[in-house]
């Protein structure tokens, strides 16, 4: 304890030993009187010691950090010094009290200096909404690895959640501190709604449960509105003006994104939906077919509803480092479709596999979700790989004939801290019928959620037909787009 007179006397003896004995080192740890008892209890619990008073003294026979041997308090230390080294200590009570007072003042000044230095650092303020979601266990280590924002960027992380989840949030904060990440400036949690997203520069929106029970698709769509309205208001009110908002999850990702844009109009251009998870699933399916690794597959495009009715486009897809008759340097690539000679597989099995993954959601677990979010943020801050096509859910402005005002996954590139839709890509036009079919779902979801439409209506009588029929009749193009259409009655 910083104001303990016996600590002052033990310190004098320890200083003498260190000065006069070879290979003898001391390490002094002072704690403010207000936190001393809690600190002592933690140390004793960790080392399975039984000690109640100040000071506590132990020796470590190896380099510091090895297993400690408890000596005890001041009297035990004095006896140890006399027995082993023939050294004792003499200090008047008056002098002990004076030094104890000086020690406390020095401790307070050092703590203030630490706080001042900490305040001089301007960390990146990252908020995770629904910070108690299980995906956070995979996401937080990625965010603090230094790979996403850079090793030179200090991060102040805040987990936002409901008040009833405070214990879980507190536990996650402690686990995050235990990571001892060199880029972590601070970590905390927030359960006070009015304080949410304060000065946030990055906001990650994860799936959150709704308070009310819903039994219909329409009810489920409308149930997303209150939380998105609240988040939108809080982002506009509290977040930094340049905040980047990224929306992830398993259900209604496009809808949540467009609702956030609706209720935070000043930040709309800086709100996007994560599509890299679906893209990763598609690459893995192709890679298994071609007997290569998913990382060698590039330029797969995801169109439409990320967590529902979407289409996987392989027309631009390339494979690198592929073992074939034609070989080239590492940057040499083959067209995926030129190497998959089984058109039946592309038209049916590929489609069915992706559709099953989308319907069940079994393969979109915490690892994939976390990696997709972290990678999207990395691209947003540092740029996507040059020349590579990535997919993201962004607000449509009429590109590719997509109706305006809905969030639609489409090909983009990230550069200079922003994103650009790749409207100049050649030979990626898709038929109006296919666009209308995808856009119909997204438009209806938005209208129903906002109360402008009462019931959801499937698009056309052929809605349940296989998508390849539409593609193969579209000017004779190859069937390269697959349907991840999700049964709307199971999505919620």
UniProtKB/TrEMBL annotation:
Biased composition (Acidic residues): 481-492
Molecular functions (GO terms): malate dehydrogenase activity; oxidoreductase activity, acting on the CH-OH group of donors, NAD or NADP as acceptor
Keyword NAD listed: yes
Residue segments, region Disordered: 465-492
Pfam families recorded: Ldh_1_C
Keyword line: NAD, Oxidoreductase, Tricarboxylic acid cycle
Stretches assigned to the Lactate/malate dehydrogenase C-terminal domain: 282-445
Database matches in InterPro entries: Lactate/malate_DH_C, Lactate_DH/Glyco_Ohase_4_C, Malate_DH_type2, NAD(P)-bd_dom_sf
The keyword NAD is assigned to this record: yes
Domain of life where this protein originates: Eukaryota
GO BP annotations listed: malate metabolic process; tricarboxylic acid cycle
Similarity annotation: Belongs to the LDH/MDH superfamily. MDH type 2 family.
PANTHER family xrefs: MALATE DEHYDROGENASE
Protein name in UniProt: Putative malate dehydrogenase 1B
